[in-house]
Amino acid sequence: MTHDAARQAHASAPATPARALLPLIVPALVVGVAASLLFLGVSALAEKLQGVLWNGLPEALGVGRYSVVWMLVVLTATGVLVGLVVWKVPGHAGPDPATLGLSAPPVAPAVLPGLLVATALMLAGGPSLGPENPIIATNIALAFWLGRRFAPGLSGGLWAVLAEAATLGALFGTPVAAALVISEAFAGQRLEGRLWDNLFAPLTAAATGATTTALVAHPAFDLHLPPLGPPDGGNVLAALVIASAAALLGMAAVYAFPYVHGAFSRLGHPMLALPLGGLVLGLLGALGGHLTLFKGLDEVGELAGNPEGWSAGQFATMTVVKLAALVVAASCGFRGGRIFPAVFIGAAFGLFAHALVPAVPAALGVAAGVLGMLLAITRQGWLSLFTAAVLVASPTILALLCIATLPAWLLVTGRPQMQLRKDGTAVR
């Protein structure tokens, strides 16, 4: 969420009597439902196409669905198709995704068809990115342009905040994630009135988006790992070490990001950068296995369903390959977000720690690994803590994660982020 948008939201929802907040309920409800339905629609379309690409076609052709040849063909073809969209479709599927974070200024409506097509192709084809950034950008643009047309009395900044909150609620299936992200965006700013007055409309939108998603799709983020018992000194030490090590690994990718992006940018054309990026991703998939493809959320569930099913070396390979795939996919021009792949990377790293030192509970390893990796990749403290905790339904995990956050945050704060300015330099 941009600071300008947050400030405009404050102006639209200051601390006033309840009657000033009541008119915001209907717009928040509408945005919440619409944001969730758009997310679900794009996801359903991508899943249908994924089934064709990775099940129907290889079966009809008599090739292995995750054979090396098929991974190279599909990932490269995905790069070609997305490259055509970026090259030829009006709006070029939006700005360079490497320059965007979770929120962005509203783009022109003409950009949205190309952006949504590129996103669906990416999700179906297997690059290691999630839907969050382009879906948030689309919902912000739609809410901004339609809201200003049909309800001009409300500021454009408020519409943007409602759309971002609603999409976060829809993506995570709970409004808590949106409330934490918005509260973090408000930090350090001069609020007009109480925090909860400013959160009222965004939280309404987030709750509506989350409820709509829950009613339609029934998402579940709990990995059903063996519960963590009462913590001891070993658990505290393990959480500190794993979260810090994951943050350092994530920072290695952050520091590599501008160089990899610069290499693809020098190719000078999306029909060169994206097919080459797809080919590299196919090679990485062949190295790391099919679990290192796609956004990673379903694949995390497969890993967690059998934490003893892979060796430490295999978990380490998946961690490094997925991290490299995230950097390549985010650098070459695929439209997508970095949160869900980072969750897979952190979970694989945590399971590597569990396989290496069996005394480390799998649940603790996963939660601490996800925490450290998300802190490095997203620089969103509350979102990282929330995501790590929600993957492991354990009352004792939250305190351990809060302790582990402290050294991990010291390792990432003030350093470059996995987001670039238009000149190619890293945002700090």
Can you give a write-up of this model?
The protein has about 425 residues and is mainly alpha-helical. It contains 17 helices and no strands. The chain has helices at about 5-10, 20, 25-60, 70-90, 110-125, 130-150, 155-170, 175-185, 195-215, 235-265, 270-290, 295-305, 310-330, 340-355, 360-380, 380-390, 395-410. Helix 5 (about 110-125) packs antiparallel against helix 6. The longest helix has about 35 residues, at about 25-60. The two termini are about 15 Å apart. The relative contact order is 0.15.
Poorly predicted regions are 9-15
Rounded to an integer, what's the Rg over CA atoms?
A: 21 Å
Order of helices and strands: HHHHHHHHHHHHHHHHH
Q: Give the class from helix and strand content and strand pairing.
A: mainly alpha
- Helical percentage: over 70%
N- to C-terminal distance: 16 Å
Q: What order do the helices and strands come in, and which of them pair?
A:
Blueprint: H1 3-12, H2 18-21, H3 25-61, H4 68-88, H5 112-125, H6 132-150, H7 156-172, H8 175-186, H9 195-217, H10 233-265, H11 270-288, H12 297-305, H13 312-332, H14 339-356, H15 362-378, H16 381-390, H17 397-412
Helix pairs in contact: 1-7, 3-5, 3-6, 3-7, 3-9, 4-5, 4-11, 5-6, 6-7, 7-8, 7-9, 8-9, 8-16, 10-13, 10-15, 10-17, 11-13, 12-14, 13-14, 14-15, 15-16, 15-17, 16-17
